[in-house]
Amino acid sequence: MPPHDALHAEGLTKRFGRRYALTDCSFAVPHGRVVGLVGPNGAGKSTLLHLACGLLEPTSGTLRVLGAPPAARLARVGFVAQDTPVYAGLSVAEHLRLGAKLNPSWDASLANRRVAQVGLDPAQKAGRLSGGQRAQLALTVAAAKRPDLLILDEPAAALDPLARQGFLRTLREFVAELGASAVLSSHLLGDIERVCDHVIVLSGGRVRMAGDVRDLVASSGGSLEDLVLGVLAS
Ligand SMILES: Nc1ncnc2c1ncn2[C@@H]1O[C@H](COP(=O)(O)OP(=O)(O)OP(=O)(O)O)[C@@H](O)[C@H]1O
């Protein structure tokens, strides 16, 4: 297990023109955790995730991923964007073949096992999959890289409640099996409470709360949902 924090931010600020998406954010997430990133629309969640996978550069401050700048960690990070991008014209099996070609650390047996587990037809074109099936395919491709950090932007948004539960359970199993960390953004506090052991609450581009879910819940005496809603309302 890498000795570094999965994520470490100090004074992290990102500005788009005159609009601040993130302001002076500082937090640390130890490796091996499933981290929930929550906050209202426009809070800065996607911006933070895009900074973590090197798609954006900070305006000021620093963000380190597995102990290094994000650009140096691309091969060790698996990213599933909000719209779960897949290649519509390629079949499920072709996605796996492409993944194997592009990633030296590709785990074919993990990919095949997972495709069978979630009931994807290898011959089906990705453009014909449902939203939930596309999300499962995108997660499979990201996980088969055997990343040290999985970054998922609202991964369960397109899934029905039963599929969501299954998806979150397999995500936990994945993280344990890979010996990895995961960060996922979600509006669904119940999902976060079920699957995450660490939470970061953003609002207006600032960190309002961050820490271990069990500690936070124990010290507040209520549910995580009550706690987060209280923080966001204050
Ligand atoms: N490329 C961009 N150019 C200009 N402003 C941007 C850009 N990306 C994000 N923003 C602004 O930064 C702020 C944070 O956006 P971000 O997408 O990170 O929020 P979010 O928490 O992911 O929101 P949601 O829950 O709605 O997906 C918003 O005010 C948004 O308008």
TrEMBL record:
Q: Which UniProt keywords apply?
A: ATP-binding, Nucleotide-binding, Transport
Q: What is this protein called?
A: ABC transporter domain-containing protein
| SMART domains reported for this sequence | AAA (SM00382)
State the family named in the UniProt similarity comment for this chain. Answer: Belongs to the ABC transporter superfamily.
What Gene3D superfamilies does the record point to? P-loop containing nucleotide triphosphate hydrolases
Cite the PANTHER family for this sequence.
Answer: ABC TRANSPORTER, ATP-BINDING PROTEIN
Q: Which SUPFAM superfamilies match?
A: P-loop containing nucleoside triphosphate hydrolases (SSF52540)
Query: For the ABC transporter domain, which residue ranges apply?
Result: 7-229
- One Pfam family hit: ABC_tran
What are this entry's molecular-function GO terms? ATP binding; ATP hydrolysis activity
